[in-house]
């Protein structure tokens, strides 16, 4: 791949200290889920159950994988999901993810809990013409003014939207990570936090949790478009639309990492889409493991998807270069899948091309 | 944990003889179930299938895990289920369970078939202000007067209610225990039995089995509130309510230990609740393996839950201290779960926050 | 067990030659099924899915396991199914099965393809007052007169009914037995066949296959009650009843040994019972692995059950004595199960005590 | 088997060079499927779920396995599916498949991507009076005239129909084959291609993909009957019939090798049959692993079936001889299955003899 050298050369994070957490513990944290991981497994299974029933002999003469989002057209319909502590996966951490994603037209949502300063990420890819969307995920540390300052800092660095995670007022350790003895080192870098990270008590977490009025306040003051991530209930989607509280929303159960037992996102996406009724774009994440899964989400009506664990695996295997290789595979697979489904564009995809319960009991 | 020393120091059972039954045989007895263990597995699976569909951005500013039961408010909504022969799990047996549970505000139901005199348990925790409910489970050995004397003895020792097990007129060995060669030593202590335990013939068991008129008699004469444990059929629940035969009931299939093939308690709880129609509190046990499972039972409408096998595992691992550690984890998990579900209290939990068949075929 | 010595002493088959077929091959033949063994597995799974929802506090003061069949009351509601070539399991073969079954009040259906002369079996147990039913299973070798002579011979030896197997016009080797290299030795004893066994061509098998007019002819000429074994389709059951062609029928898929893909007997039993409408007794076999399974069949309305593979396992483990021990376990388990279900007798069992899909998705 | 010697002797391909691709990589390519292989597994599972509920005592006096197709009666209702690169399985490749199939009356569809010149195959079996149908599968390499020349070449060699694969406009490497490092050697023989095989870009593949107007053109010019393979959607079947575009069609998802997530063919066959409404014969392939599976397809209404992977396994095990042995087993199993189902002929098979969900939850 021609981009390989530049990907490595551009990477200041390579001087960072070595892996400070044992691999097994890091994997348990990065790849595990909450509780018994029922939601983690259900997320994947739900996409696999969905299938295709396309027409034949209707191949388009060309296909394109572009996607319109927040007023601009992007090369692909996917973004790297916001993920904390990626230095656990690779020393280049979020910078590797940014470079590898931009190289293949994929977007990126940088996490507040990243190990890389948002300015470094912005500087590396914000001016790349071929990249995907560049968004910043905001956790509400500190006071409202702190949030705003962070959003302004992201805007200055070239980020184009703020993603507000609304499904994780409580963050706790997972059984798998606990069993593996996972813990972050004392000097772990969190350069985007307005203040040093504290493991607050539950009481403190509850008092500082984000609420609808915070969203409304941010909506007024935030200099960037606002996207809510973590919507599952159609009533929440309806509320957000009716009160004009966001520019887009992401159907998400936080990859099964917060509350085990939440439904797979593939299962609730249709109801959310119905509630939104085309008023704003709806994205989705959770359990998407290949471009064909993404195509199913798009056929259901999602505008784009966020991808997490596959990128962690790629980062672990080879940093930016492997991330780019993965996205390239996805891009090719999406193009081929569109062709096999008789769709010239993503917008041509219809739910009618889906077949429910491929491996299930739907046949009679 | 600060309570560790006192937990050990207070423990007279530590001088008891060593484990007299091989570990594998003891485990087979303690953890196994009747028949092919279909009910044992179904109990666990039924809670896991149940999921959550909460609203977001509605976090309460504080949560509490307290529970009102028989006229008093308790720190947590759970009790250790009555379990026989706990010395098989740990030399401190029921005393360890009592101390570890009381230390974290959990209740306890002491079994007639315990290896520890009920007076020792009462003396250890009855006056603890932070403990949970303290109940005594009565097996109808001997004559009616024997039952009454035992109930009075329990009352004097500080127990607050009598739990009558109604689903085990026949007790038999399980295939797993049989295969492991499980047998109790001849001098096995059963200090709460009115007479030496006899392995009665089936005929004798049938003639001495508890019947509705026995319940009615006990209801009149028993000096303590009466709780029926082992109700599955809504008609039995209705009967108990209409004739005012008990102060509470426990939906239970005896942890899958008596009749294999009984439905999972999660499956029948809603129909029992409907039959009871709020007249008395309904508790449930069977297959609850974490606080989130308990929260599902509470959301369905159970007032509290009984917990068995997880405590046996904890006892085996570390006696009272490990029991306390387990209950502490449950308490924290319940608080966090309430917060994520947008519920300030257990009473705020509603069935509407549940999502059926997380890992199933409900999505379309 | 007191009957142990006499069981061995009475056994002339003990002088028979040693196991002539390797154990693995014998097991593959005895325990395997046709095709992919879908029916073999489905038989077992269907009983396991069925569960119980009994009432409590309604224990009968005594239970009895007797069963009325063809005008006589028997100690238990089960018979050993007709099984070919039992010498593969134990040198005492069918004689061990007969003695062990009679010792615990279980019935027996001797196969035409037995390795023991029917007269030896009749002599050993026909006059036992405590035994169960003694029936002879007739395969239509040779001509109609040959069948009749065999039935008369069975009558003289003390057999009380003829069981006609109607579901196996074609018998073929199973993949599992084929893979294990199973073959019968040349001098294998088949003393009940009217002529030496021939592995007929398919054409020959088809021409000599039993048809409804053969049943009608036998019905007229056979000196004993006639029972059809292998009915699955309700229309066949209805036909047999309307034309008065038999005294009882057995719902059976031949234990999954003839045509893979036949439905589990538990699944079709209700429709057959409805078609028969109490005109004749209906028995069932297939996948019954414990007395609780049998109780489910009886609760559905079967009069009695036939049991196969568990007896082969018992024979292999210890001949007559182990067969008796198994039946004793079944008898005790049935008595206890009746008690737990609140049924004094088998006739008291009702389908209303059953709960469908214990481990399934019936709960909401 | 008497045909063994001649099968080997007649085989010029035996002088071909040895296996040039490692076995594991060859297996991954030959036996693997697209994506996560959901469709590959679903194909097999769907046939296994289907079962039988036949009548008894209705055995025909003789059975026959013949099948009428395109105006001629054939010994069996099955053909070897078109499979590419069979030299990966055996040095005799397609010739072994042709000889072994013809020896047992099975048909064959030779692939454009075969390693054996179509003339060699035609010369070997076209004049065999006992063989099954001999068809040629056409991939649209080059221009329309190239296709026509290839069809004419096939006609001259004795092939009787052209099978047009319509479900694989895009062919890509499978994850399993990719992981195994599968690649064809540079000098790999593809003697039926009009031009050297090129791994075209996706753009090139899309532009040269077959479309309905190509089918219409071929329908007019092709000197042989035209069969469309790869139909799943009933609307495509209806279209093909209404416009008289083919003489038969094959319900196929390409054995799960092109687009993962396509429904199992057993699930969509009934809807396609209904759309076709007897106007042309409908064949089916995918997941058929034994003659009983084929019988289920025939009972649903398919005229014949195509078989793939079982033949690859047979080729690998023993070339032509093993292929013949497999087909012989299938023939015997089909005859026996017909007999057990009470059907004299394939045409007598009715869907009413099928039982849905043998191992499923259909029983109540």
From the structure above, extract its key features.
8-stranded parallel beta barrel; two-stranded antiparallel sheet; TIM Barrel; disordered N terminus; homotetramer; 12 strands; alpha/beta; 364 residues
Give me a quick take on this structure:
4 copies of one chain form a homotetramer. The first copy, chain A, has 364 residues and is α/β, with parallel strands linked by helices. Chain A has helices spanning 4-9, 23-31, 38-49, 93-103, 118-125, 144-156, 175-179, 202-208, 212-221, 234-242, 265-276, 291-300, 309-340; strands spanning 51-52, 67-69, 72-74, 78-80, 107-111, 134-138, 161-165, 226-231, 248-251, 282-285, 304-307, 354-355.
Q: Can you offer a commentary on this structure?
A:
Four copies of one chain form a homotetramer. Chain A is an alpha/beta fold. Chain A has one domain (4-12, 21-52, 71-349): TIM Barrel (Alpha-Beta Barrel), CATH 3.20.20. In chain A, 40% of the residues lie in helices and 13% in strands. Chain A contains 13 helices and twelve strands. In chain A, strands 4-5-6-7-8-9-10-11 form an eight-stranded parallel β-barrel, surrounded by eight helices. In chain A, helix 4 packs parallel to helix 5 (118-125), helix 4 (93-103) runs parallel beside helix 13 and helix 12 (291-300) crosses helix 13 (309-340). The termini of chain A are far apart. Residues 1-5 and 9-17 of chain A have low confidence and may be disordered. Chains in contact: A-B, A-D, B-C, C-D. Chains C and D meet through helix 3, helix 8, helix 9 and helix 11 of C and strand 1 and helix 13 of D.
